[in-house]
Design a protein that fits this description.
By secondary structure, this protein is α+β, with helices and mostly antiparallel strands. Helices cover 66% and strands 9% of the residues. The protein is built from 21 helices and nine strands.
Length: 623
């Protein structure tokens, strides 16, 4: 018999079968799909990091331009042309892009080299000692950095070309942008409203395209572009939101007697554009982190409820016969909380044999993961809607079963939600008069219990699979915790990658504070001359850093939490019952990280601001 004939006969008998060639093709296709998805995911993180870096670079050039405004005005007064002023900014941008790209390539190469060394010691010596390097790995980052830097310098360069010679006689001051805030606020508010409308359109899609195969795709697109539009609109609203929030902080600091905090809030309210640009980079990073965390726990909670509704036990091991002592071996397996042996049988249907289980009320009380599951009443056969459709039966239908003695027995079908296994009462099964087998229902110990201290769900499932391999036809299922493990692993990886964008944003906060110190050196000198201590000056910078980092983190957390739950809701449109969840621990960690980052970002600027002597700072002039 040929391989194709054997596979054909197995499929005709109701088994899933494939030839070796088909199996390898499917495996290669799956591997290619996984690699493609990972490549797209990593590319997405790269784009996020680039976007965050672009905001930081733009902010740096904008503040540098404001600081050098008098220098450009003096150069214009001495005969310099506008294009020369523009070229000065673009030239600096090119220099930043080249140096940044070279440093990035070197650091990336060293990081891969370190990972390969760790892999050789911990995984396999077959891994190469030195990572490969090709021309594209050099050209692409360099070109991307140059394009990013030049694009980030466009608006500062235009601003430099518009400087008037008379400004050389005026004190340098960064414009707060209050005169343009009304138009910007109206436009940004309209963008937010548009995003809300587009996001809510996903619910309309679920109703209008309920039976369409493109319903989920269109719903996801509505949610994605809607949430993206809301994020852009909120970032546009920051210059309008920062002054009232800063004034509120000023009033609170005044009531509590925090003088340094009052000056910090007043200074931030003076320059809402600069503060908003700095904060926007942090908002993007924290929003994405909170989105992933909220979406992951919501998906995990939804899937766990769905799996529990389908299979209300952690693991089922079924066989035509169980060897003596098998139940005791399962119970003694590390990580198992409880195991119960229940009767099982095969009921013949036109669509194939249906496996039914007959647990008692005591069995379900011990091992069931869902409180809603109950033992069926006598004479009833319970199963879910999908299972009923598979076996071509409907709710209330009476099914005839031929007993071993030749008599006919009846059982009534009851469709119960999404139950993917078939349940009958023990007395109902014994009354059918057919051959019975045995099954073991297993309940895992809680993941944080002492019984599971050294056992993961994968290890536990593997141990039970080894026991089940000794049995004639067996089934081992353990989906609930496996799903949780996969989601938590993906969440950890994605949050770690997104943390890079947040680190870049924090560097931007430190950069903004440093440039602010340079710009306001005369102010700090005057305050020092009037008796303000070095500690008070440093405290002002600390409060500014905390305000920028914490408010940015808070906005990101609020947006990300809503985006994550909404995204999962659109992804699972119509397929699953929705169970939202909030990852309180992750969100608290993000907020605390924002506080710590704000403090750390202000250390060096604060030291610089407090180290300059009053007379020296007052004598400084813009070069």
């Amino acid at each position: 018999m040929s391989e194709e004939e054997l596979v054909s006969n197995l499929k005709a008998a109701g088994y899933d079968a494939a030839t070796v060639t088909e199996f390898l093709q499917d495996a290669n296709l799956m591997a290619l799909t996984v690699v493609t998805m990972l490549s797209a995911l990593l590319a997405g993180f790269v784009l996020i990091a680039i976007a965050t870096s672009a905001l930081v670079v733009t902010n740096s050039f904008a503040v540098t331009m404001a600081q050098r405004r008098r220098s450009f005005a003096l150069a214009r007064a001495l005969g310099a042309k506008r294009r020369q002023a523009m070229w000065a900014i673009v030239r600096d941008a090119l220099l930043v892009g080249i140096i940044g790209s070279i440093l990035g390539i070197v650091l990336a190469y060293l990081a891969w080299w370190a990972l390969l060394l760790v892999g050789r010691f911990t995984y396999s010596e077959a891994l190469p000692v030195v990572p490969g390097l090709n021309i594209f790995a050099i050209l692409v980052p360099v070109l991307a950095s140059l394009i990013l830097a030049v694009c980030a310098s466009v608006f500062p360069a235009i601003s430099a070309s518009r400087v008037k010679p008379l400004e050389a006689l005026r004190p340098a001051e960064i414009a707060s942008g209050k005169h343009a805030s009304l138009i910007r606020t109206i436009f940004a508010s309209a963008v937010v409203a548009l995003g809300v409308v587009v996001s809510l359109g996903s619910f309309v899609v679920e109703i209008v395209l309920k039976d369409s195969e493109f319903m989920i795709l269109i719903s996801m697109l509505c949610a994605f572009f809607g949430c993206l539009t809301i994020l852009v609109g909120v970032i546009g609203l920051l210059p309008a939101l920062i002054p009232p929030v800063a004034k509120l902080g000023n009033a609170l600091a005044s009531a509590l007697g925090f003088t340094s905090a009052r000056f910090a809030f007043l200074n931030l309210a003076r320059h809402p554009k600069r503060t908003g640009i700095t904060m926007s980079a942090l908002i993007i990073g924290t929003t994405l982190m909170a989105t992933m965390a909220s979406g992951a726990v919501t998906a995990q909670n939804t899937f766990e409820h769905d799996i529990t509704d389908r299979v209300p036990v952690d693991t089922i091991i079924a066989a035509t016969d169980l060897p003596a002592g098998f139940l005791e071996k399962v119970q003694k397996t590390e990580g198992v909380d409880t195991a119960r042996q229940v009767p099982t049988a095969e009921l013949p249907f036109d669509a194939g044999a249906m496996t039914v289980y007959a647990p008692s009320a005591e069995d379900l009380q011990e091992v069931a993961t869902a409180d809603s599951i109950e033992v069926p009443p006598p004479g009833e056969l319970h199963m879910g809607k999908a299972r009923a459709e598979r076996f071509h039966v409907h709710d209330g239908e009476k099914v005839t079963v031929n007993a071993n003695d030749g008599s006919a027995r009846e059982v009534t079908v009851r469709v119960k939600g999404k139950l993917s296994i078939s349940l009958v009462a023990p007395d109902t099964l014994s009354g059918l008069g057919i051959d019975e087998g045995k099954a073991v229902f297993v309940k895992f110990a809680a993941p944080d219990s002492p019984q599971r201290a050294h056992t993961t769900s994968i290890q536990l499932t593997g141990a039970l699979s080894e026991l089940a391999n000794q049995l004639p036809p067996e089934t081992v299922t353990a989906q609930r915790e496996m799903m949780a493990t996969v989601i938590q692993t993906l969440l950890t990886i994605t949050v770690a990658l997104l943390a890079v964008a947040v680190v870049v944003a924090i560097v931007g906060v430190a950069n903004t504070l440093s440039l602010s110190v340079i710009e306001r050196s005369s102010e700090y000198a005057l305050m020092r001359a009037l008796g303000t201590s070095k500690g008070a000056i440093r405290a002002m910078l600390v409060w500014e850093g905390i305000f920028i980092a914490f408010l940015g983190s808070l906005v990101g957390v609020l947006l990300g939490t809503a985006f994550g739950m909404f995204g999962v809701r659109s992804l699972l449109a119509g397929e699953f019952d929705f169970y939202p969840a909030i990852p309180w621990l992750y969100l608290l960690m993000i907020l605390l990280a924002g506080l710590v980052a704000g403090v750390l970002a202000s250390i060096l600027p604060g030291m610089r601001a407090s180290a300059t002597a009053p007379a020296q700072a007052l004598a400084q002039r813009d070069e």
